[in-house]
Amino acid sequence: MIKDFKTVGREADVALYFGLISSASIASQALMSPVWGWTSDSIRRRKPILLGSMLSAIMGYLFFGCSKSFTWVLV
Question: What is the pTM of this model?
Answer without folding.
Answer: 0.60
